[in-house]
Amino acid sequence: MATADTHTVLLVEDDDATRARLARAVEESPDLTLVGAAGSCAAARAALDEHVPDVLLVDLGLPDGTGVDLIRELKRRAPDAEAMVITVFGDEQHVVGALEAGATGYVLKDSSDAYIGEAIRDLLRGGSPISPAIARHLLRRFREPEEARQEELPSLTEREREVLALLVKGFTFQEIGDLLGISAHTVTTHVKHIYRKLAVRSRGEAVYEALQLKIV
Fold first, then answer.
1. Alpha-carbon distance 121 to 29, whole Å?
2. What domain range includes position 15?
3. Structure confidence by residue, pLDDT tens digits, 106-153
4. To 5 degrees, how large is the angle CA 213–CA 89–CA 30?
5. pLDDT for the residue numbered 168
6. Cβ(137)–Cβ(212) below 8 Å
7. Could you give the angle at the alpha carbon of 123 between the alpha carbons of 13 and 110, nearest 5°?
């Protein structure tokens, strides 16, 4: 139950395992209270009818609609409530659409539990938490012409491009090794090189960079 010292959070995520992990990230923060964990737009609207939270933590791709619609609805009901997107979609269209709808935070799903909790608290303090990979691309788009961005494409080997392409498709390291005829350990080494060349720290950020830069 929320108290004067805590803030309420409504979580909307359709994947059961991810929803459980995100719920745990919220519940482990003593100053946050999870008031609902919905798996669809319909369930989220029913939860909003019961209680308008301080923070809506919402995925964009839902089975019966989009998180952007829920953000707009939250803002209609409570203009001062905060909305933070947590998603695998890091492309400019999704980011800008969510921000225009009223989101003030945008983080990728593979962020750590500690980062997610801190991002929510940052949001409540008036900040606008955005995953580094997303922020980097938004800044690049505003600061540099398209030609300059294309010239900065990282130099990946043919094997690294193959590994990255399979990462984008969602294969595990072991599955990638089996498909390419190499060991999972060798895949891990390639992935480390890919992370370094793309200046990222996680699989989600690597996938995002690959799609944004059209490497694969």
1. 9
2. 7-139
3. 988 888 888 898 999 999 988 889 888 777 766 666 665 554 445 456
4. 125
5. 86
6. yes
7. 45
